[in-house]
Amino acid sequence: MKKNTINPSKQNECIFDLLPEASPTLQTEFKKQQPIKQETSITNTQDQTDKYGFKSQKELKQKNDPKTLNARIQKWRIMIDLFDKQEKPDKKLLKNRTRKGIPDGFRNLAWPYLAGVPQAKIDSIIYLKCGKYEEFLKSQEFNFEHQIRLDVLRTFPDNVNFQDQTVLSESLVNVLKALSVAISDMGYCQGLNFLTAALIMVTNDENAFWILFRLMTKYQQAEKYKNPSSLLREFFILDCLINQYYPTTAKILKKNNIDLFYFATEWFITLFASTLPIDLFYRVFEIFLLEGEKTLFRCALAIIHFKEQKLIQLQNNFEISLRHLKSLDDFFTIDNDQFIYVMFNKFKFSWQLIQQLEEKYKKQKKK
């Protein structure tokens, strides 16, 4: 198996060009899959855990209207059927339904399509001469296995499914090992363990691997792991956006010398997997799969939105302010829909704005 890597092309904002025009063989496994019940995929070994196995996360406030949920399930059954037939659903319709949230049991089916997994397998065959997850696990060289196993023990320490040698902890090790072989110039980096763990709590090992493979190549996320200094671009763009939307917060951060590095590194490295309640992370993540990088900046701004008032009260205390910026507690008093609403109704900037800020960053970097 070759160890060269895929040259990622420019990331698209929409997913429709990522869906393969023809590849029935690679699509077969998706057609055979059935929606899974989320509760049955996670081993809940203690009474005081949520459905994902977290001991400390409180239940997020949710609007659980059975009629709305059932209607959403029926709509996603139709959407999955379109994916299976390799038909492209209406762009606006898919965007609206994804923003409203994919029902738990359908994420296992929808995420591979949103991420373009069938195309990822084609790319892997072309560039790496390998299109099967199992083949990557047959490698004789796992240079990062020791570090991976150490980090698995630190992954979501309050989740019973990643304590000791559980089924999910071994799945986490295997997916990360396979990814380190597939993207050999990246290998393994801390932060990937949280993102991967979040995925395997919803989908199987193979889907998780290919989604990650797609994130590292088509979505160009590998660079931040290969070269952490590349995060300076994200920090610059986010800093500009905070100054635009939350000038008061920007002044507080500057006054207290709170650099974005102190709290936003984890946001971008884990794609918010370790910094949002897990249910809310899944909502943000599936939107990111469809709409691309600007989703990350909208999410970051939404976090600032819900933290600003308390931050103003704490503006003269560096340590407590920083702890507040990293805390999950603010998000247990709102429901997911409220957070998503803020993301898309308060921050209506275009992809062109992100590109303009990126160009501004490049010019400043040259000085």
Automatic annotation (TrEMBL):
<keyword id="KW-0175">Coiled coil</keyword>
<feature type="compositionally biased region" description="Polar residues">
    <location>
        <begin position="35"/>
        <end position="47"/>
    </location>
</feature>
<feature type="domain" description="Rab-GAP TBC">
    <location>
        <begin position="101"/>
        <end position="292"/>
    </location>
</feature>
<protein>
    <recommendedName>
        <fullName>Rab-GAP TBC domain-containing protein</fullName>
    </recommendedName>
</protein>
<dbReference type="InterPro" id="IPR000195">
    <property type="entry name" value="Rab-GAP-TBC_dom"/>
</dbReference>
<dbReference type="GO" id="GO:0031267">
    <property type="term" value="F:small GTPase binding"/>
</dbReference>
<dbReference type="GO" id="GO:0005096">
    <property type="term" value="F:GTPase activator activity"/>
</dbReference>
<dbReference type="Pfam" id="PF00566">
    <property type="entry name" value="RabGAP-TBC"/>
</dbReference>
<keyword id="KW-0343">GTPase activation</keyword>
<dbReference type="InterPro" id="IPR050302">
    <property type="entry name" value="Rab_GAP_TBC_domain"/>
</dbReference>
<feature type="region of interest" description="Disordered">
    <location>
        <begin position="28"/>
        <end position="51"/>
    </location>
</feature>
